[in-house]
């Protein structure tokens, strides 16, 4: 009933294997296309054992490079930045152009006589290339410069995603220059994924927080290594959706296709798409029992006045007296996640409790729901299969 051992969720050795054979060998989410709009803008991301940055060149082309100087390996660029004309190592001032070519060294002839009278970009010391791709308005990197195309990797699942035109939406945050949600969760990243794709828990853990969706009519399955999921709204919620929606409705979603699209893109990013929001749900493993979750949200472009008007209509909608925003248990919502009426807090609580149980000698997996939990084992099988294909379990 379980395709991975307990050690896959608790041991440093297994965590290190994942960094080497899973996250260093797959396309990894880096950001949104609007993060680097101008030549010289860049963004960096950790892809397993590799720190990689994407930079927009003077020709407006996106390129990806391993974020280390070819001299001594010093990190070149920090998280995100604007309008670089060149890339200079802070350690010894080796400088590269936006195409990754070495263009200058301080005191070249004195310190490096073997490079005298040679063109620097022909000395084999240019930046190591990686791959960059765009999928549904998202930037991805792959540590291999000859990686399979991003559409080859995600192509099978694309027909099952929502009809949202992501490029037409705007990022929504309550404060400028902040992402919508960031949280460090005390659980292995795979436990969080398994919670995300577990259909069985929706009508139980979230019986009062996600009850506006018709869980009985959910459709889900696999396309390659990726999980897809769709469920419709409850009829009375849908009938009042123009008023009940928290934000202005997304225009690119036809009325007959409104619902919750919640795919999981292998290995570590989910997308949640509904009538008024499009979100990324990105996991970065930090340790065997710690994971960073970052959610970024996009909504229909509209004025502050339109947002305020929609919020007012939503507050007055009678459907909210029946659906959502009530805790599973009574209690102090500020101290008890299960009384909060917040489905994210409910999920985090459940994941952290499961992680704690893994240390018990009595831990075991009981009977599993044939339909509602089948995706969990399939995901575990995909993790094992990918790691095995990249040498994780070869005999030393």
Automatic annotation (TrEMBL):
Keyword hit for Transit peptide: no
Required cofactor(s): Fe cation
Keywords: 2Fe-2S, Iron, Iron-sulfur, Metal-binding, Oxidoreductase
Pfam families in the record: Rieske, Ring_hydroxyl_A
Source domain of life: Bacteria
Boundaries of every Rieske domain copy: 27-106
Iron-sulfur as UniProt keyword: yes
Gene Ontology molecular functions: 2 iron, 2 sulfur cluster binding; iron ion binding; oxidoreductase activity
The protein's name: Rieske (2Fe-2S) protein
Protein source organism: Sediminicola luteus
């Amino acid at each position: 009933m379980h395709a991975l051992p307990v050690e896959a969720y608790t041991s440093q050795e297994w965590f290190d294997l994942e960094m080497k054979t899973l996250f260093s060998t797959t396309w990894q989410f880096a950001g949104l296309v609007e993060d680097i709009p101008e030549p010289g803008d860049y963004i960096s991301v950790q892809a397993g054992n590799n720190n990689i940055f994407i930079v927009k060149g003077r020709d407006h082309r996106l390129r990806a490079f391993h974020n280390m100087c070819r001299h001594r390996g010093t990190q070149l660029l920090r998280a995100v930045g604007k309008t670089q004309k060149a890339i200079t190592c802070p350690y010894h001032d080796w400088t590269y152009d936006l195409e990754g070519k070495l263009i200058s060294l301080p005191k070249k002839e004195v310190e490096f006589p073997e490079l005298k009278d040679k063109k620097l970009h022909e000395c084999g010391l240019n930046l190591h290339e990686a791959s960059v791709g765009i999928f549904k308005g998202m930037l991805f990197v792959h540590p291999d410069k000859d990686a399979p195309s991003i559409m080859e990797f995600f192509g099978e699942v694309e027909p099952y995603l929502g009809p949202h035109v992501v490029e037409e939406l705007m990022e929504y945050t309550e404060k400028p220059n902040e992402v919508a949600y960031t949280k460090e969760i005390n659980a292995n990243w795979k436990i969080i994924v398994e919670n995300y794709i577990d259909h069985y828990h929706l009508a139980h853990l979230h019986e009062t927080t996600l009850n506006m969706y018709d869980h009985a009519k959910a459709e889900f399955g696999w396309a390659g290594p990726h999980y897809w999921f769709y469920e419709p709204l409850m009829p009375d919620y849908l009938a009042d959706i123009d008023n009940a929606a928290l934000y202005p409705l997304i225009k690119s979603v036809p009325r007959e296709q409104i619902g919750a699209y919640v795919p999981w893109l292998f290995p570590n990013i989910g997308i949640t798409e509904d009538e008024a929001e499009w979100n990324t749900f990105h996991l970065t493993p930090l340790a065997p029992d710690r994971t960073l979750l970052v959610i970024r949200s996009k909504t229909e472009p509209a004025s502050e006045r339109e947002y305020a008007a929609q919020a007012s209509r939503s507050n007055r909608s009678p459907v909210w007296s029946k659906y959502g925003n009530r805790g599973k248990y009574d209690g102090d919502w500020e101290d008890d996640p299960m009384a909060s009426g917040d489905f994210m807090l409910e999920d985090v609580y459940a994941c952290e409790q499961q992680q704690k149980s893994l240390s018990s000698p009595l831990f075991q997996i009981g009977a599993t729901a044939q339909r509602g939990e089948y995706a969990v084992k399939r995901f575990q099988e995909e993790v094992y299969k990918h790691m095995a294909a990249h040498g994780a379990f070869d005999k030393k």
